[in-house]
């Protein structure tokens, strides 16, 4: 799988940076966010380096199946959860490896903050 040398998520996939994995498939990794914004805050990423939405078409189904599955594992499926994806710097994307935030475990207000 292609990886980018300085990408923190590629390093997590490779195992050179530890992460608390919640779900792993052949193509997708879901792990706990170390900067949690909710009682449940997970990150779902493709194992292959994909920088943004332009490259996600093939993996979209796998990502959303993993998100649905991990919501059950995390116990937030029945109460509700939020899935957030930031695209580009103006939206707050800090790591150029596509990732989805899965937040739950409490009432999430909108707009946030």
Q: What's the mean pLDDT score?
A: 90
Instruction: Supply Rg.
Output: 14 Å
CATH class: Alpha Beta
N→C terminal distance = 38 Å
**Tally of contiguous helical segments:** 2
Please name the CATH architecture: 2-Layer Sandwich
User: What is the number of E strands?
Assistant: 5
Q: Please, could you describe this protein's structure?
A:
There is one protein chain. The protein is α+β, with helices and mostly antiparallel strands and 113 residues long. It has one domain (8-104): HIT family, subunit A, CATH 3.30.428. Helix content is 19%, strand content 22%. It contains two helices and five strands. The chain has helices spanning 8-14, 60-73; strands at residues 21-24, 28-32, 40-46, 81-84, 100-104. Strands 1-2-3-5-4 form a five-stranded antiparallel sheet, with helices on one face. The chain starts with 7 loop residues before the first helix and ends in a 9-residue tail after the last strand. The mean pLDDT is 90.
